[in-house]
Specification:
The protein is α+β, with helices and mostly antiparallel strands. It contains 19 helices and 25 strands. The strands form six sheets. It has a six-stranded mixed sheet with strand order 10-19-20-18-12-11, with no helix packed on it. A five-stranded parallel sheet has the order 4-7-1-8-9. Strands 16-15-14-13-17 form a five-stranded antiparallel sheet. This is Strawberry notch C-terminal domain-containing protein.
Amino acid sequence: MILLAWWFLRHVEVEGPVIIWSKIMTNRRNPAPPAATLDINCDCKEYVIDYLTKSFPVRLMQVFADEDGNLRSEAMSDEEGNPVFCPRAIAARDALIEQLCALPPIATALDAIIEHFGTDAVAEVTGRTRRLVLGRDGEQRLERRGPNANVAEAQSFMEGTKRILVFSDAGGTGRSYHADVGARNQQRRVHFLLEPGWRADNAIQGLGRTNRTNQASAPLFRPVTTDVKGERRFISTIARRLDALGALTRGQRQTGGQNLFDPADNLESDYARDALSRWFQLLYDGKLEATTFANFVERTGLRLENPDGGLTDNLPTIQRWLNRILALPIALQNAIFEEYLGLVEARIEAAREAGTLDQGLETVRVDRFTVTANELLRTDSVTGAETRLVSLEVARHLRPLRLQRLVRMHEIGSPHAIPMRNARSGKVALSVPARRLIRDDGAVIERRRLLRPLKSANWTLEALAESHWEEIGVIAFTSAWRAEEEEAAACPVTERVHLATGLLLPVWKRLPGDHVRVTRLVAEDGQSIIGREVLDVDLAAIAETFGLSGVRGPLVEQIGALVLASGKPLCLASHDPLTVKRSLVGGEQRLELTGFSPDRLDWYKGKGCFTEIIRYRTRLFVPMSRASKILQSIAIEP
């Protein structure tokens, strides 16, 4: 908690109102002395010292063999039955307590925030009746707060008088801190979760204080953690419980989690469990760098090996393994988690590329949308509920990553943030380190993440070396980035979206199953629509399945763009039985034609295609810049 407060005070830079939610930890054991000058320590240090005093192992133990010959230990006592203590253990305990008592006091998160920003800027809704504050003379004073303090503080935040609000469980019941259209302060809230706790229902209640109906803008949630990897244990539990609670309450996973967490944050998912099984096997085979099998077993006390050799079939659960990891030194924790998360992300990346990753309900905010077609797919014979295929024309402005924010995030030009430009397209990207992946055989895959104004992607070092990306200077990079940023922000885009809406369960399996994505479109005028997204490439199959006459497949000029977007091959009606597919060559996506006749290669080249010999096989590609015209000419002419 102290580390979270330190991070917040040093790194928070936001433009809108700041809301901090925490289970506030304060020391109420020592009442304020009746003195003119207060010098009160509220860092909860005595809890640790009391624990060391009562629980530090200082008694001598003796080893003996039981009836079966197993070595066991028991506490030693003298002839009179008095316990025998270890002088070295007592000295170590006393030295540790002495060192702890000599440390300077560290303020709690709540007191540190109030002291840093001042009571004039921070509204505290925690239920405290007394608090220590610094006066203008720099001296501490005890401030008593009346029963109506919470109401007054919340009102001052909603009116914009105070731009920072800190509330705890006591201040998160029956109150609203959202950007209400009836309030004077309608700026977007930035909601920091310093300590959300373990209970998912309380977490949802706290998040709901700033995300409610009749609001001018939705809040930005930011869960705050330190760089201690073991802390992922708590984030994982919150992510899992929020997702589960959302599924139980309204049948929507986003109802609980609100897409607040990445799939890799849930360390109790199927991907994480499968990765843990593989981690144990790699540990046993000696293919991990962080620790050895013997060292891990000795430090954690876990039984991983059968008496006859080999891994036991009854391996520890993910919860038990995570709890044991928390007891390890922080450096070892971080090293183990890096390798374990590399296995988790390798599985999630594979599922994402295959289109099988369940990302739950995704809310997409657009400028406006217009219904262009509305076809009936099915009517339930009992309830009369309908399932419809709705085609929408969606207009939205792109929101590129601003250069100013990129500079705050990364030190451009340093060895960790390398400016790059694509020699073929002329686009720029910032190359930053990405978590490495670990294959099931223990091989390490080093990666870099390319940040671009509108998107980002992870590249392996091998693929990046074979691509057209090359390093450039910082000045050229910033100039090109600003140009791309302005171009993206100035031109709104219009796209076509198809949604299957209404009663979906009876027809769920009849819809194409390799692209499952549930989307809610929300327009600026308040209109919204929710449904399972259907790709253009699947329209023909849906029309055939449900007998729709008004739904047609994609046009020839759309085939290239659809194949690149979806990754699904499409047939092209021509002299040869051609198939247009997306292929990854040299780290770049290309449009490839398969099924061509070898004796017609010159004809295809005359239409604008080009060939390349890869692994002793001639492959035919279509230039992506002129794919629409070339595919049309190939489909028209025999």
